[in-house]
Structure formats: structure tokens, C-alpha cells
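1st attempt posting a full record on here, be nice pls
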Amino acid sequence: MKASASDQRSILDIQKFDFQSAALRNKAANLPELAEIYSLTIRQNNARDLRIAAETELSDVKRELTRAEGDVEQIVTRIERDEKRLSSGTGTPKELEQTQHELVTLGARRAELEEVELEIMMRVDAIKERIADLSGQENQLALEIADLNIRKENALAAIHTELEGIEADRKSTTQSVSADFLALYEKIREANNGIGAAALAGNQCKGCNLTLNTIELQRIAGLAEDEVVRCEECRCILVRER
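the predicted structure (as C-alpha cells):
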């Protein structure tokens, strides 16, 4: 294939634009904010899951507390009933003595149940504190994620603007290059990890950094200026220095 010296110089410019675009897209895909958002989102989700589990636990413990309060209330009711009986003096001495013994037993049972009730109340308070702490973590992480998202969007907007400028320059440059030559470049670039053209600097291909041997260099030197040269190693278009 033949291509004018101008087209060959332009194809190097197009390659430069393509490298710049690829670098910017890679930058966009690997913004540090993305990794931070991912990490913080995992932490936020973990805090949320723990909070939900704690809220479920709190609901269960509150039901346990309600049962404990009911047990204490029943004992208190029986104690009040027996105290009234003793105060009224109703019943035989033996019955009153039995009532007195029952009050002692009920008092001990009440103390036990109230201790259980207190322990459950302490568990409720501890779970509430845990829920408040986890909610605080969620809210703080949400603020950090929101800030990171703003920074990410700003960075992406700047990259997008830069990409638009490069694309405009590339489009302008391609308009002056022959369609066949441009198509060859695109085909090579697609099959060669984004490298379709490179400069021949001295005796080296800047696409793969292969050093060309003397015989190949002499062959290239004898070709017409508009003859398209390909690298033997990477097969990209070699643009000779003028």
C-alpha cells in the first residue's frame, strides 16, 4: 500500500490521540474514588446489616422484658393480697402463719425476678447503644460516600471534557487521511493491543522496541517515500523520519 508522507505523519498523530484516549479511559476506570467508594459501601452495608440484626434482637429482648415484667407483676399482686390478709387478721393462726411464710417465699422470688428484669433492661440499653452507634456509622459513611461521589463525578467530567477535545482533534486529523490507509491502521490497531502505527527512530520500532537489522534498514531506505512500511515483529505501520 502507498500513502503520502503527510498521511503517514498524520497516522502517528492519530495514534497519539488514541493512546491519550486509552490512557484517559483507563484513568476513569481506575479513579481512586471508585475503590474508596467500594470499600466504604461494604463497610456501610456491614453496619446496616448489624443494625438490622440488633433491631431484631432488641425486639426479641423487649418481648422477654415484657414477660419478666408480667412475672414480677404477678408476684407483686400475690404479695399485696397476702399482706392485706395479714393486716385484716382474717383466718386461723395457722393460716396466718402459712401466709407469713408465703410472703417470705414470695419476697425472695420477687427479688429473683426483679434481678432478671434488671438484667434484661440492661441488655435492652446495651442493644440500643449498639444500634445508635451503628446508625451513626451508617450516617457518617453515607456522608463520606456522597463526598466521594461528588469528587468522582467532577473527575469524570474533567476526563470527559478532555476526551471530547482529543476526539475532536482526531476527527479533524482523520479527515485529511486516505480512507484505505486509515482502515489499515484501524485493523492493525484492533489486532495489536491498540498499536497501529509507530515511528521508526533510527533503527528501532517505537511500537515494539525491536531493533531492525541492517539489511532491513537498507531495504526500507530504498523504498519510495509513499511506500507503507510494516514492522516485521509487531506488524504496525512504521513511519520513517523525514
